[in-house]
User: Fold this.
Amino acid sequence: MITSNNTAVRNDRFIDVDVALIGVGIGGVAALQALLEKGLRVAAFEEYAWIGGQVSSQALCVLDEFHDPVSEKTGYSRRYHAFRESLRDFYRKNFRLSKGGAAQLYFNPGNAMNSFMVAEPHVAHQVLREKFAPYEESGQLRLFCGWVAASVRRDGHRLLSVTCRNLQKPSETVEARARFFLDGTEAGDLYPLIPVSFRLGADGREAFDEPHAEPEANPQGIQSSTVCFAVEYVPGGDFRIPRPADYDEWEHACGPFRLDAPGASREEPSLMFRRKLGRNGRMVPPAFYYRCVIDRRNFDDPKRPFSRAIINCACNDFALEPMVGGLPTHLVYERAKALSTAYFYWLQNHAPRDDGKGVGYPELRLCPEITGTPDGMAMAPYIREGRRLCACTTILEQDIARANQTGARARHYDDSVGLGGFIIDVHKRCLARSVFSGGVTTNPYQIPLSALVSTELENFAVAGKCIGTTQITNGAYRLHNIEWAIGEAAGELAAFCLSRSGASGFPLTGRALFDYQRELIRQGVPVFWYDDLPLDHPAFEAIQLFSVRRIWPADPSHLRADAQHSVARSLKSVETFFQNLAALGADPGDIPEITLVCHGTRKEDLLVRMLRHLDDNGWPDAAFGDTGTLRTAGASEAGIPEALA
Assistant:
């Protein structure tokens, strides 16, 4: 395994780079990849020994992509897809799969019930370090693990430098001087240092009138955090740990403990290894396979003889103290870890056995070899909610909740830089009697660029979950693939801004936004929701670009692009498309005439030809402005405008 080596930088007092990245979680990883591929010099500082955040140091490489329409081909970017495939490749190359494992179309090492793709956390860390190793060796990347931000120098709306310190040697510091700065931390650690305005905890109903907001604002009412842990089930083994001295305290404060998985409850807990039918007729999945990262049935290899799982459930959700904004994080982490230890003791000694013969699973073994810690507990807490930037745009519950939508998609953002698809998942809050916790169904939604930046700064963006959400919508924007999308957009944003000589500000509108979004799309980032438009589709760029600019009238009743449909089958949409081009002042040449005569032309061919035509002959200025008044699908009843007939 490749390990961090900071010996080469211990004498550096200053580093001059293009971009300084503070926090290399899953969003920071995505930002880093985008920046390095653009040839930029980066100094990256990560608090923990492992980079990757959720997938590594937090021991939660159980990618939260279970909810449709996110799939193997849609809903996330080309780079994220490559990361997922690199995890699969690790197992294919290093282990012998069983016939059942090898027969899977999309190999999932753990067959986890809530994830299309999982991996052991040390594997994710190794894959990521190997990806960035060439950049470290060349000097393009300076990566500091075990470092945190200590202070910031600022001049008006611009950041000048960030000074970071070594956690092992606090007197050792490095000042990173850069042209652009990104915060990829789990809790928005740079915000109070800059300082830049942020929100913390419950917003209160009066702030945004969200249906599920708490009645009153409460900065300490932050959602629970979790110290995950890794276990292996070894039939016949006995790995019982000593009874924690504070076990009774934790069971009283956070219990009664139970076997837990989605669909289970205090009244009707899960079984450990077998599913069961609940009293309402719904399936209650087994607790072990909720976040199983190794299913032994997938392997025929002595190196993976037993099944392994990550434990992150309601029973080790820690809500007694906020992980952010209260006591020092390391102290709260120790308390949260004590809760997880108590729960593990309960699993080994008191969990009801599936066969009804006694209690306890002493066969469960903690797995320090995959968490990078001595005890099998994650080295970092999973922080669901940190500080939230007071951004140019704040995403509200009403913008994405299905109850507030009239079509298949959530609110359209002209400055979309990525996609998300998950419920609004709100966990219990610290130091508060929460009015609401649970899930709110959403429509597939977008990530607006304006939620990543603030009016207070012109060379700073967020590369993680701490964007301009409310406490409620944070529950839909903290998942693995969404945090990656945020980080990737932030990395591309930094590169775009630094490439514009003489220009200042963010590309939030106009030609700058058009060019930035197009670069994202060309890099394989979807910005408009279609569930049948894979990243490698030859019309991906054309369909994405025309749709996000509202020039192509996407059908609001479903998520399909139906790219192979003929003009004859899609005549209303084609007519509206030509009307919108006319309204923008575009010269479409003879494409409308050819298209309407040749009804066999497919939508994908039409849009690619029109994109190339406009690139060759010039886009009208109106295409870069506000296109919110253009016609939508089904709006046309009058046929083709005379000027285009």
Summary: The chain has three domains: 14-61+120-195+390-513, 225-383, 532-624. The CA atoms of residues 153 and 159 lie 6 Å apart. Residues 225-383 form one domain. The longest strand covers residues 147-155.
